[in-house]
Amino acid sequence: MSMDDVFRALADPVRRQLLDSLHARNGQTLNELCEGHAMSRQAVTKHLVILEGANLVVTEKRGREKLHYLNPIPIHDIADRWIGKYERGRLRALGDLKKKLEGKER
Amino acid sequence: MKNARFVYVVYIRTTQKKLWDALRKPEFTRQYWHGAWQDCAWTLGASWKLMIPDGRVGDAGEVLEIDPPRKLVVSCAAFILEPAGDLVQLTVTHEMDKPQSKLIDAVANGWPMILSSLKTLLETGQSFPSTREWPKGM
After folding, report:
1. Which end of chain A has fewer surrounding CB within 10 Å, N or C?
2. What pTM was computed for the model?
3. Per-residue pLDDT at B1
4. Residue A96: strand, helix, or coil
5. Which residues of A touch B10 (CB under 8 A)?
6. Cβ neighbours of residue B131 under 8 Å, at least 6 residues apart?
7. ipTM for the predicted complex
């Protein structure tokens, strides 16, 4: 998997929503992830395969269930590529200020 | 309530043996784990302590499973090393079954940074400078 795969996977709003959902609650089943999406299970599965291919989602078997986890490593690598080591603290402060002023998470 | 569980996967251009050493030996962990090292005899049931550079104990537990160079389970974290072509796939699972101290939270939240630095160390010989020291005020 390459950084291209990561950007391609992130380019779709549905796939970003699936990552949001896992960020809010890690370790969900396919059924849980399908809730709140007006999409077929097959369509959600297709998106999850792309996310897994980009290493943004990893799965674990728990008995008969397959649980999905958000793997933030590739996103961390993207940030790391363009954010200088001394900028992190200031960027976080700016991000926190924006959140506070706008009164929402995203 | 379900336990908070995190799974991280990182692919590293190295060998299982080198990664196995890098996960355990203080001379490696000090470079990518914010200066921390593990006080452990690395045998089944041995006590395990994560030692912070200033001498505090960051986390403690025991070795629950050890199968060199494939699997290591200590305290609430598991490390699985699998060959993936000319890479090694490292899977780290971390479970928090009770409200943790601020210190342990800090260690856990840092996994993506720690694992990226470990990868960079093994692939280039140099870890990220920011992961060679313990964060100030933590």
Report:
1. C
2. 0.85
3. 40
4. helix
5. 73
6. B31, B32, B33, B34, B113, B114, B117
7. 0.77
